[in-house]
Amino acid sequence: MTTDIAIANTQADIDQVIDSGKNAFGDEFRNYEDSARQDTVAECYRLMHENQTVEFVEQKHQKWLGFGHGQYTIEQVIEMLDELVDDSDPDNELPNSVHDFQTAERIRRAWPEHDWFHLVGLLHDLGKVMALWGEPQWCVVGDTFPVGCKFSDKIVFAHQFVNNPDNDNPEYNSQDGIYAPECGLENLMMSWGHDEYMYQMLKHNQCTIPEEGLNMIRFHSFYPWHTGGAYEHFCNHHDQTVIKPWVLEFNKFDLYSKGDEVPDVKEVWPYYKQLLVKYNLDGLLNW
């Protein structure tokens, strides 16, 4: 299924739910210089940037993509995320479960015609449950980037890569590294985190959300690309004309909802529950 993003609501409609306001601390969004959570955020990224190597990511694929970590419903995992505050986020220190509903409700107001998009808002960060199952946050949360090629200076805290072993490996530190130009985003090995895990988990469980929505989940944290303009030489036509427009559309709601009021979960949950049924995600799923 391909949905044309050109039928999006008018800019006036979008502006009603997306603005350039402040985050939960009254600060600008994505402030990595002197945010209220600066020490926590910088340390999370330091560990990420020093330890996310090709070998490390391959190990995480083997560990997590067999989906043998238990059977849980979506509702159970959302409830688990009541216990998680994202160490990489300078914009919010609310439990991650709250952010999921904030994002979903903003999308629901702006895009009433695409209910799968609303569900993507609810699901996009559920892969962070890995941090509650033993993984350190630095390999679960935060912005993502490809491994196996040169680390871009568009990545936040890019100076921290000086201590990453792959930074000195000639096989991995060139512009193309182990990839070919225009190979397509789907062929990049991304730093391990909640994006890739949740994308693969949904595919494994035969979710029927359109591929546009699944790719929002897969690449929503790839800020160096979708916002910074890096790694464009790896993109093919589909990446540029389908994936990127939808990821950028999703990003408006993911980022700017972090200062919103907390939705009444009991009131809105029945709506999302019926979407889980519609898109084959009700009941116990393999995680």
Enumerate the spans where pLDDT stays under 50 for 5 or more consecutive residues. Answer: 1-20
Strand content: under 5%
Quickly count the helices. Answer: 11
Q: What is the percent of helical residues?
A: 40-55%
* Overall spatial form: globular
Main sheet: strands, sense, barrel:
2 strands, antiparallel
* Structural class designation: mainly alpha
Count the E strands. 2
Number of individual domains: 1
- In what order do the strands lie side by side in the largest sheet? 1-2
Q: If you compute it from the alpha carbons, what radius of gyration comes out, rounded to the nearest whole angstrom?
A: 18 Å
Q: Output the helix-strand order.
A: HHHEHHHHHHHHE
On the 0 to 100 scale, the average pLDDT is 88
> Distance N terminus to C terminus?
26 Å
What does this structure look like?
This protein has 287 residues and is an all-alpha fold. The protein has helices at 11-17, 38-51, 54-64, 74-80, 96-110, 115-123, 194-204, 211-219, 223-226, 237-256, 265-278, and strands spanning 71-72, 285-286. The protein has one domain. Residues 1-20 have low confidence and may be disordered. It starts with 10 loop residues before the first helix and ends with a strand. The chain has a two-stranded antiparallel sheet. The longest helix is centred in the last third of the chain and has 20 residues, at 237-256. The radius of gyration is 18 Å and the shape is globular.
Outline of this structure?
By secondary structure, the chain is mainly alpha-helical. The chain contains eleven helices and two strands; from the N terminus they run αααβααααααααβ.
